[in-house]
Every structure is written in C-alpha cells, then in structure tokens.
Amino acid sequence: MSDINISERQAGDVTILDLEGKVTIGEGSVALRGAIRRLLGEGKNKILLNLGSVGYIDSSGIGELVSSFTAVNKEGGSLKLLNLTQKIQDLLAITKLLTVFDVYDDEASALASFN
Amino acid sequence: MTLQEEFNLPSRIESVDEAALKADDFAKKSGLGDDFISSIDLAVRESVANAVKHGNKFDESKIVEIKLAKSDTGFEMSVRDHGSGFDPEEIPDPTDPENLLKASGRGILFMRAFMDEVEWTNADGGGTIVRMKKKQ
Asked: How far is CA A35 from CA A29, A58, B84, B108, B136, in A?
C-alpha cells in the first residue's frame, strides 16, 4: 500500500489537493513533489493543500511543503494550507513556518483568500 | 528495572519505518504513554533518516545500529552510523529568517524539540553516535 494518496479537486481556478497518509522521507515526499510539478506544468498555480487526513509528517515532509511553496511562488502563483492537524501545527510552529504559510481551517475562507 | 533492545538495520529508506515500528513496540511494552511515544517516534525517524541519508549515504553495506533502553528515569536511545562523522554545529539554524525557505536541515531541530537531551559523539572505529534521552 502506498504511504500517501493525493486526490485533486477543482474549485474555480483553485486546485485543491486532498492528502491522505504520510508525508515522510521517501515515497510521501516524492509523491507531493510530483503532484505540484504536474499542476504547475498544467498552468495551475493556485493550490490549496488539504492536510486534514495527513496522519504523519517528518522533517523531509515539512521540507517538501517549503519546496512546493517556493516552486509555486516562482511561477507567480500561491500555495496555501488547509486543515492542519495539531501535530503538523506544532511542527510548523517549532520551525517558525507558521509565519511563512497562509493557513486556514475552513475551505470556504481558504478559497476566498485566493481572489 | 531497565528494559533494553538492540537491533541493526540496512541503510535504506525503509529502515526508517522499521525502526519506528520497533521503537513503538518497545515503548508500548515499557508502558509509556501516547504523547511520550509520539515524541520517541519522531526522534527515531529523524535520527535513523539522518544515519541512512547523511551518515551512511544509502550504502547498504553499512548498517545503522540502534539501541533502546527504558529505566525508571526515562527513555534512552542511541543511533550509530558508519559514515565520515558529523558536527551538528555546522548545520545552519533552520529558524533563522535566511534559512526558513530551505528544503532541509530541520531534523535535528525536531530531535532537540521532542527529546530532553541530544548529543553527538564520534564512535570508536568511525561513524557517529547520537544519544537521546527523554525523562519521565
């Protein structure tokens, strides 16, 4: 079984990626990187990552979130985070990345923020 | 009473999960609580990932040696690689504004955040040992 499942939804010009599983060193991080690169290749650069069903993330996964953020910014787009678990919120606080990411806990507000 | 367990794993990514599973079993057998186990899990994953990736550089002929111990005062763990040595002081502070957007360099920060003591030493015969302790 795969460490992570990533499914894609479209809400207007915003692409929502629902992540489920683990974003960790190896498969999880690689899958996220691939998904972001594919979206950017398709010209989709408004991306909302729903992390509500991510049971585990490590420093490699956090690094992949940062890489995704910078890759999307470089293309003139924006990447935001939705539904952080308490654990992910703690890790982003420790790394001071809560000051970097735009974080939302409801989808409607997150989508509205892109406009 | 002290419980102890030792095991060796090959230098591949899958060993990170394997080490975490073994540490989880050990921690449960030792009667540790969920929050404690969650901290151990993160520290095991980060330290073994460092050993596999940065220490042994994915060379599967080199093993990662892991020791777990639970005593009345808390939980201790050591992870040894067979790499060329490591100086934690050389790792830039990932929370420094100029490093915030770097993709790597946060594993040590997590280990220090979730364990009470973390120290690195050069092993006799080469490699690095990281010893971590979480008090109870």
From this structure: 10, 19, 35, 28, 42
Q: Which residue of A has its CA nearest to B43?
A: A58
* CATH number for position A100: 3.30.750.24
Can you tell me the ipTM of this complex?
Answer: 0.90
Q: Do B46 and A63 touch (CB under 8 A)?
A: no
Q: Which two tokens stand for residue B40?
A: 């151990």
The pTM of this model reads 0.92
Minimum Cα–Cα distance from A69: chain B residue:
B101
Residue B133 and residue A62: Cα distance in Å, rounded?
A: 24
- Of the pLDDT bands very low, low, confident and very high (cuts 50, 70, 90), residue A1 is very low
Phi first, then psi: give them for residue B55, nearest 5 degrees. -75, -70
User: What is the CATH number that goes with domain B3-135?
Assistant: 3.30.565.10
Which tokens in the block code for residue B57? 């550089």
What is the pLDDT at residue B94? 96
Q: How many domains does chain A have?
A: 1
Contact by Cβ (8 Å): B64, B9:
yes
Q: Do B110 and A97 touch (CB under 8 A)?
A: no
A100: left (phi over 0), alpha (psi -120 to 50) or beta: alpha
* Mutation for A interface: B106, B108, B109, B112, most A CBs within 10 A: B106
Closest CA relative to residue B62, chosen from B43, B82, B76: B82
